[in-house]
Recover the amino acids of this structure.
């Protein structure tokens, strides 16, 4: 898979030595992956070599693509550990990371090192968990990033801008993968815990 992506995007020498970190964050259903794919596509159009990775545990739609809710797709490589990125980054100019909240605490350090090497690093990830708590290590990454875009969804209850992830099933697991039906976007005043109180009769 890895070789296939490389052949698709080619391997070009970097023209700039200035790297930086961009974070696209916000709640579920706020279009983070869509925005990540949009930025990767624009870089590709400019003939920059792009590499997109995601956590190996996130295989909800596809193992070798990142897929947004609106079915936009971009080839990606699943990684077990974010450190594995060092082995495959080679001379790519742009590195995208989707669902980055599922990587371990080393994420900010790895992104910082790549940016220091001159790579544009674009990271999409949740900033809050299902209880509205900071979802580490995204807040730490936001602190060291040059650019942070916080996106909002639309509250399913009242239609106002929403920044929280309402879980609709009673589970205290931080990760509930493959269970998109178990969530909806809510604003601060419509968010409820425990989930039983959130479900309308
Ligand atoms: Zn609301």
């Amino acid at each position: 898979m890895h070789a296939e992506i490389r052949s698709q995007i080619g391997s070009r020498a970097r023209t700039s030595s200035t790297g930086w970190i961009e974070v696209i964050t916000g709640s579920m259903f706020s279009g983070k992956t869509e925005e990540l794919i949009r930025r990767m596509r624009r870089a590709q159009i400019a003939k920059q070599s792009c590499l997109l990775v995601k956590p190996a545990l996130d295989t909800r739609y596809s193992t070798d693509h990142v897929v947004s809710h609106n079915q936009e797709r971009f080839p990606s490589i699943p990684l077990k550990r974010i450190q594995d990125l060092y082995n495959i980054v080679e001379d790519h100019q742009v590195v995208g990371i989707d669902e980055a909240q599922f990587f371990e605490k080393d994420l900010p350090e790895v992104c910082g090192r790549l940016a220091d090497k001159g790579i544009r690093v674009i990271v999409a990830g949740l900033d809050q968990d299902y209880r509205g708590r900071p979802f580490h290590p995204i807040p730490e990454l936001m602190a060291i990033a040059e650019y942070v875009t916080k996106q909002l969804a639309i509250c399913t209850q009242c239609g106002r801008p929403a920044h929280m992830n309402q879980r609709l099933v009673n589970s205290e697991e931080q990760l509930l993968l493959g269970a998109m039906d178990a969530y909806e976007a809510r604003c601060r005043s419509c968010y409820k815990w425990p989930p039983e109180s959130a479900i309308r009769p």
